[in-house]
Amino acid sequence: MATKKKTTPRKKSATKAKAPAARKQKKTATGRTAPKGKAPAPKKAPARKKTAGKVPLRAKKKTKLPGATQQKAGPAENPQALALARRMAQLLLDKKALDVVILDVRGMTSYADYIVIASGESDRQVSAMAENVHVQLKQGDEPVRALGTEGVETGQWVLLDYGEVVAHLFLADLRSHYDLEGLWADANREKVS
Questions:
Q1: Which neighbouring-strand residues pair with 148?
Q2: What CA–CA distance (Å, rounded) separates 92 from 170?
Q3: Helix ranges restricted to H, 46-169
Q4: What does the pLDDT read at residue 59?
């Protein structure tokens, strides 16, 4: 038979004074208890998220100027580029181009403001349309030179790059295959006839 060991009751007043100091072990920042005799590492303040150039929400205040109307910021007008696009479209029509369309892609792309798309019935016609645009734009009061051209030799898809205006001249079958108008479906269009 097992006998129970009797425990003697502790004195409450003497133990209470020493117990918290003796039992209490300080924890480090990692959650482990520090070894005896060493001071615990100082706690780091929680890191704040860095916001580059942003103002905290509590500091943001919207100020409205009296009498100022808020306008929707749209792409900047470019009348010179539009005039060039319309002139190119007219030169293409002089060579019997089909379905001439000017797409307004301002604010949608960084390489041009307007895209002129036209098609021809043969590769010779497409090459002739491109040659007419080159020759006519070099002449006049304000000559304009192309920054680059592609596809003039083959005449199936000719690209004329005039900086703010880019022209795509296609054979009719290739135009429907590549469907650039569908690619720029959100752009405003001006049909030239």
A1: 161
A2: 12
A3: 79-94, 123-138
A4: 54
List beta partners, residue 27: 33
Q: What does the pLDDT read at residue 79?
A: 85
18-33 confidence digits (pLDDT tens): 545 445 555 555 556 5
9-23 average pLDDT score: 52
Cα(106)–Cα(81) distance, integer angstroms: 10
* More reliable by pLDDT, 20 or 170: 170
Percent of the chain with pLDDT over 70: 62
Q: What b/e string do you get for 89-124 counting C-beta neighbours within 10 Å, with b at 16 or more?
A: bebbeebebeebbbbbbbeeeeebbbbbbbbbeebe
Predicted TM-score (pTM) of this structure: 0.60
In angstroms, the CA 35 to CA 176 distance is 79
From CA 157, how far away is CA 150, in angstroms rounded? Answer: 8
- Domains of the chain (ranges plus CATH)? 79-181 (3.30.460.10)
* Closest-CA residue to 181 (of 87, 94, 115): 115
Residue by residue, DSSP assigns 125-138 as HHHHHHHHHHHHHH
The sign of the CA dihedral 119, 96, 87, 150 is positive
